[in-house]
Design brief:
mainly alpha, 7 helices, 144 residues
Length: 144
């Protein structure tokens, strides 16, 4: 049975959430602290989506019939992760459009689509990225 990834998902989710926070701050089109509340909810949802993507293998292991789908396990559940990443990108972009901007901004805070694509790719490929950097991070965390 696959292992539930909690600590790596939280750490990578925090890093993707920080990226979202800095991207939103760089793209802000209004004065004030409303960008910060939007950035906090974006960071929370980034952590949520990273947790889901990093535990797709664990969740799908409860359905033995899915093990017979060769292309699904061959691509390391990439189709499922891509769907989750597209949902995350849609959520990021729509949240950016809903927030009302200040000054003369009519299109929300104006988060660039390139930042949305980067955040989505960081979410989709989080298991591979954490596979590379987790041995280095684990050395700093004696309890993990």
């Amino acid at each position: 049975m696959a292992e539930l990834m909690i600590i790596p998902a939280i750490i990578w989710g925090l890093l993707v959430g920080l990226y979202e926070l800095f991207a939103i701050h760089a793209d802000e089109s209004f004065v004030g602290m409303r960008w910060f509340t939007h950035a906090l909810q974006s960071a929370g949802f980034a952590m949520f989506f990273v947790f889901i993507v990093m535990n797709v293998h664990w969740a799908l292991s409860f359905f033995p019939a899915l093990e017979n789908i060769i292309w699904l396990s061959f691509f390391k559940y990439l189709p499922v992760r891509a769907i989750i990443g597209i949902i995350a990108m849609f959520k990021i972009q729509t949240a950016s459009m809903v927030v009302r901007g200040g000054r003369l901004a009519a299109r929300g805070i104006g988060e660039h689509f390139s930042h949305t694509i980067i955040a989505g790719l960081l979410i989709i490929f989080s298991p591979e990225i954490m596979g590379f950097i987790w041995p280095y991070i684990r050395g700093f965390l004696s309890w993990a």
